[in-house]
Amino acid sequence: MYKVRQANPIEMLLGVPSPVSFSIWWNGGSILGILLGVQIVTGLFLSMHYTADMTNTFASVIHIIRDVPGGWLFRNIHANGASLFFVFLYMHVGRGLYYQSYITQPHTWMVGTTIFIVSMAVAFFGYVLPWGQMSFWGATVITNMISALPYIGGAATEWFWGGFSVGQSTLNRFFTFHFILPFVIGGLSALHLLFLHEKGSTNPLGELNHVSKIPFHPYFTWKDIVGFLVVAMLLVMLGFFYPVILGDPENFNEASSMVTPVHIQPEWYFLFAYAILRCIPNKLGGVIALASSLAILYVLPYGATGKIIPSSFTPFYQVMFWNLVVVFLILTWLGACPIEEPYITLAVPMTMLYFLLYLALICMPSVWLKLIS
């Protein structure tokens, strides 16, 4: 009697049926997985020489760059790898928005949104660790937003700081969170893949029931390898030739609570949310707007009709999507501008457009269905 050989998990993963019409935009997930691995490995080696001590923290970073063999390379790759991670993360979210993945795969979308928010938290904690001027004052400004919460704001801020200001306890906690949360992202990524393979991947037409499918390996593994090589080239170029192009010059000065930078701003991948925060004069309103700018991604699946009209056949949806991209870029630029006119005034309509365009994306499928029915 013959026994049927059970396929092992690796064979099942490599042989998963995939749409033949996959484009390069579907490379983002695998590239993010590789970048997450690079960040964890480089961060692990950096933590061996890093000192979470206010008096020696800045010096320990200089020690890593100057004295530790290969430390400069690990530090450059880790710092610039975070920027590349968010480049591909925003592209991945944009691809999901354009092809309406939040309708066809709502559970995958919700877990992915959680990964996005946790990644922002990890990046913020990591930005504080070098203990430069912008790190210290960025942490002071951003964490002070917690105090805007009614009733519990003051106590929550003191608990988060571990005192009455950003100090030693804050640095210790941020280092712990920055070290632990990437493994949480790894677990969420596994859940993200589990939900993805439950229904299968979509294609540019937004369909799940594909007539023509091919095994993932070897066809798409080669495409992923090309993506990995492109990312490796970008990392090498940034790490060797332009290591500080994405950083702030103010962060080359050691943190000092007695000297405030002329213009306090976070890293570039937070600037759109920072522009939304500071364009609202009310502190609590600004915090709510900032949180809403991220939480609105959770709302997209609930506003969907369950039916998908491919964006390829919906010109108005394409216009709304690309307008959203332009508004996002303008907000990013405004977040880097000084807090003065005309930048403050310009940020207000851009913030309104940001939320209105998201609402348009939510309502567009149902409106289009009524128009064509």
Automatic annotation (TrEMBL):
Q: Where is the Cytochrome b/b6 N-terminal region profile domain?
A: 1-205
Q: Name one GO cellular component term.
A: respiratory chain complex III
Q: Does the keyword Iron apply?
A: yes
In which broad location class does this protein mainly occur, judging by the first location in its UniProt entry?
mitochondrion
Where does the UniProt annotation locate this protein?
Mitochondrion inner membrane
> Which cofactor names does the annotation list?
heme; heme b
Binding-site list for heme b b566: H92, H192
Cytochrome b/b6 C-terminal region profile domain mapped to chain residues: 206-373
Q: Binding positions for heme b b562? A: H78, H178
The record's listing under CDD domains reads:
cytochrome_b_C, Cytochrome_b_N
For the keyword Magnesium, the answer is no
Q: Which domain of life is it from?
A: Eukaryota
Topology within the bilayer: Multi-pass membrane protein
Q: How is the cofactor bound?
A: Binds 2 heme groups non-covalently.
Instruction: Give TM regions.
Output: 24-46, 82-103, 109-129, 136-154, 174-196, 225-246, 284-304, 316-336, 343-368
* Protein's job: Component of the ubiquinol-cytochrome c reductase complex (complex III or cytochrome b-c1 complex) that is part of the mitochondrial respiratory chain. The b-c1 complex mediates electron transfer from ubiquinol to cytochrome c. Contributes to the generation of a proton gradient across the mitochondrial membrane that is then used for ATP synthesis.
What the record says about family reads: Belongs to the cytochrome b family.
The protein's name is Cytochrome b
Q: Which organism is it from?
A: Sakuraeolis japonica
